[in-house]
From TrEMBL:
Full protein name: CBS domain-containing protein
Signal peptide, first to last residue: none
Keyword RNA-binding annotated: no
Residue ranges of the region described as Disordered: 1-28
Entry keyword annotation includes Ubl conjugation: no
A Pfam family it matches: CBS
Domain CBS: 38-98, 107-165
Species this protein is from: Shimia haliotis
UniProt keyword annotations, A-Z: CBS domain
């Protein structure tokens, strides 16, 4: 053993000990909001009028490749929401007679909305509890976008991929 060697003691171990995870890093103070998702996906909102037919609504849903439309009045105010699920239920009730019916006959009139500054986790909980997949985002100036359950899942998956990449970089160096 070289004469300069000194056996480690408690003090030297404490100095060298590092922690990759702390309460601060594990419990981030940052709350992800609806706006963060809208920034990534855009604020497009597709609307239809209450007096339009379900046939017209189905064409818009198909052409825009979306699952729900907000229903607005002549002033652009939100008066309902129409989803694929609403249409399918009506198809089952009135086979062969559904497409000529008006949107206002089957739209959901008690629409749950969220705001751009609302926490994503809160929105996800409300969507899950209410068993719906689309939520309009309402701001002071009107509709700011449409949030879907798919948007929330995609956002979280991207977040998890980023976290995994950071962990890999920590491990590999």
């Amino acid at each position: 053993m070289p004469s300069s060697y000194q056996a480690p003691n408690r003090k030297s171990e404490e100095k060298q000990r590092t922690m990759s995870q702390t309460t601060t890093t594990n419990v981030s103070g940052e709350t992800v909001t609806v706006q963060r998702v809208l920034d990534q996906k855009g604020g497009s909102v597709f609307a239809i009028r209450p007096q339009d037919t379900l046939g017209e609504a189905v064409k818009v849903l198909r052409d825009k490749r979306i699952g729900a439309l907000v229903v607005t009045d002549a002033n652009g105010s939100l008066v309902g929401i129409l989803s694929e699920r609403d249409i399918v239920r009506k198809l089952a009730d009135t086979p062969g007679q559904t497409l000529p019916k008006r949107v206002e006959e089957i739209m959901t009139t008690e629409v749950q909305t969220c705001t751009p500054d609302e926490a994503l986790v809160s929105v996800l909980k409300r969507m899950n509890d209410g068993k719906f997949r689309h939520m309009p985002v309402a701001s002071d100036v009107g509709l700011a976008g449409m949030l879907t359950i798919g948007d929330l899942v995609n956002y979280r998956l991207t977040e998890l991929e980023h976290e995994a990449l950071q962990l890999k970089q920590l491990i590999v160096g």
